[in-house]
Specification:
With about 280 residues, the protein is α/β, with parallel strands linked by helices. It has one domain (about 1-270): TIM Barrel, CATH 3.20.20.150. The chain contains 11 helices and 8 strands. The chain has an 8-stranded parallel beta barrel, surrounded by 6 helices. Bound molecules: L-Erythrulose and manganese (II) ion. The site of manganese (II) ion has 5 residues, from loops.
């Protein structure tokens, strides 16, 4: 499994669960990439304002300077900044939301990375019934999954906890939805913070998702770096090995007590997995 740490380029998300922030997007990217490399991470996960910023921030240069990969790109600014949702009652807003993500997919794919659909999935409310919202979600995932595949990528869909969505809060339900609707080229982002709230047994839930696990947000129960809360990392690591997961463990956590400490604890927790469970353990 590979390690990644989050870098936030969105000023409105200054208080969000991302390890590296900055006084400016350029500074966040510069400092985040430098510290990620110094600490030994394989990659960074970037949360940009949109495709334009991602295209114009010399991401390729920063990654090359530090020998890093791009693990994934978050699309949450589409919601935080523009209030775009893939399940909105207004078809024009749903189309804008799709377009926003399509453009992000194009740039992320140039760097070999998938895009995450998290908060842009929205929720069912008001005039939009659950059935309607799930139709809209399925249509968007079909469309964006095909678009990602055309660029040699998969798309990542992230179930969130009940305070952030009412669509899918458990990874197993989301896996059944993808399988049942025949949605291809879309994998699940399993965020251990959300799973700590929603799953009876996070390790078993990961095993049930099997090869649909496409990315992992490596966060403790309190959304701080792994080792800060009460999540047991060993059963999670064993479950991921059992399903042959070879993707990223990416720290989407608060920069507490500070960014460097959170990043350092994260990389230590990932390295410690080798001693907890040998790589050959089924
Ligand atoms: C939001 O809580 C989250 O986990 C993000 O990864 C979604 O954009
Ligand atoms: Mn997450």
């Amino acid at each position: 499994m590979k390690s990644a740490v989050t870098v936030c380029l969105v000023s409105e998300a200054r208080q969000g669960p991302f390890v590296f922030h900055g006084a400016s997007p350029a500074e966040a990217l510069h400092v985040g990439c430098r510290r990620a490399a110094e600490l030994g991470f394989d990659a960074v996960e970037v949360f940009p304002t949109g495709a334009e910023q991602l295209a114009d921030c010399d991401l390729a240069g920063r990654l090359a300077d530090h020998g890093l990969r791009l693990a994934a790109v978050g699309s949450g600014a589409g919601w935080v900044r523009h209030k775009l949702s893939l399940t909105h009652g207004d078809a024009r807003i749903r189309t804008e939301a799709r377009d926003f993500i399509e453009l992000l997919i194009n740039i992320a794919a140039d760097h070999g990375a998938p895009v995450i659909i998290g908060s842009m999935q929205g929720r069912h409310e008001g005039e939009v019934s659950r059935a309607d919202a799930l139709e809209h979600l399925a249509a968007a995932l079909h469309h964006l999954g095909r678009h990602a595949a055309g660029r040699g990528q998969t798309l990542l869909y992230e179930p969130l906890n009940r305070y952030e969505t009412n669509l899918f809060t458990q990874v197993g339900e989301a896996a059944s939805f993808l399988r049942g609707r025949g949605i291809h080229h879309v994998k699940l982002l399993c965020d251990l913070f959300h799973m700590n709230i929603e799953e009876a047994d996070p390790a078993a839930a990961l095993v049930a998702c099997g090869d649909l696990v496409g990315h992992v947000h490596w966060a403790d129960s309190n959304r701080r770096a792994m080792g800060s809360g009460h999540t047991a990392a060993a059963p999670i690591a064993l479950a991921l090995r059992h399903i042959g997961y070879a993707g990223y463990l990416s720290a989407e956590v608060f920069p507490l007590p500070d960014a460097d400490t959170a990043a350092g604890m994260t990389i230590d927790s990932i390295r410690a997995l080798d001693t907890i469970a040998p790589r050959s353990t089924p």
